[in-house]
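Hi! If you just cloned this repository, the fastest way to understand the data is to look at a raw example. We've pasted two of them here, unedited. The first protein comes first, obviously.
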Amino acid sequence: MVSTTVGTGTALGAVVVSLLAAPAQATTSPGTDRAGTERVAATAAAAPDDTGLRAILRTARGQGAPGAMARIDDNGTVHRLVEGVADRATGRTISTNDRFRVGSITKSFSAVVLLQLVDEGKLKLDKSVDSYLPGLLPDSRITVRHVLSHRSGLYDYTNDLFARTVPGFEAVRDKVFSYRDLVKLSLAKPRTNAPGAAYSYSNTNFVVAGMLIEKLTGHSVGTEYQKRIFTPLDLTNTFYVHPATAIPGRHTNGYLTPDTAGAALVDATKQTASWAQSAGAIISTPHDLDAFFSALLRGKLMSAAQLTQMTKWARVNSNTSYGLGLRRRDLSCGISVYGHTGTVQGYYSYAFATKDGKRSLTALANTSNNTKVLNTMYRTLESAFCGKPATGAAARAAVPGTAPGEAPVERHEDIAPDVTLD
């Protein structure tokens, strides 16, 4: 393992680039009670723990990821850490400048477009989806808010598509679905709960979100992403290419782990991602994702009123809550961060930022269907936002709801959430 220097981009290791001289920032740590009301406590954000991050990325490699990387923007001071390769065939080192498939991080982009449409008076969150898309869903009580918060009860069709990981993927790698095809797959199964009764993550919800975007604007989701988000934020390495199969330009390949132990990884880079579309088909880079979530949380993409709606939380588990297309993670140091996770065949990604948008992290491992790697990559949040672990009793403190010294177990919600891995 050799540490890189700025500008080489050839060896494995870590790079820290100071773009601005900036002290550690104060941030706030909101939690919620069971009614969803935010409570706020001020906590000073410690400097990111680059040594800890590097160890996490190395662990992910040892668990089967060909490569792993993390990029932190700490109010202008940028930390870049990489381990392993972007391409197993050529041996090219993975880079934080590489493009990759972001998976369900796409959901945050889709939610932003719909909340902008609320600002424009073209959509109401508590109005029935049926009033905008007549006859699409079997229950007129399902509202736009239910869809964006995963409380619609619509079954996640990916449970069936990917019950067998590699055969399921190969069956859809080059297939092009319509939105209605995907909704039809969902409606062939019973709903998971009554509208609004419970949180139940489902990609079907954000397929419906894409249909709403296209119905209300008269344009494709790709056009609306570009006009409303990519161009205004100068996200020049962010794309929606569906149904094209290639990632344009320099990119990290994604490798799917087969269900059979010891079987060779499958290069899943080229695919239509048509099974995901507005639920998971965006391509981006760590820089652009950091910029997106920073801008979102700083209030640059919608009104304060709609950002408040986006951050009305439903508790998912001891350390996770969900708003409207946005996750909140409560960390062991008392800080909460906001963003989304992403899984698409060959890629696990995390993109989160502090509430003030001053510190953001994007982390990636270029494999999927590997629970050990998924749980390891979750730990990048602790190193990026909590800094170096404390010593003594504080070091053994756990996220609420876990035993002392025990890391939270990450669920693979973003794809086939009801299918057991490993």
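Ok, and the second one:
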Amino acid sequence: MAADEKAQAKGEQAEGKVKKVVGGAVGNESLRAKGRAEESKGDLRAAKEKAKDAIKPK
């Protein structure tokens, strides 16, 4: 399950970055803001997974 969450985080980060760049290129501030939000959501999900891996017993 952790691999699924990590993949989802990477997908959110990538999709957010694309929306942010496209929004900036076409001057659409709404799309740019949505991209920043989605990228942040992916960053948070990735951080959560890293924290879970750090405390996982080995």
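That's it. A detail worth noticing about the second one: The first helix runs from residue 2 to 26.
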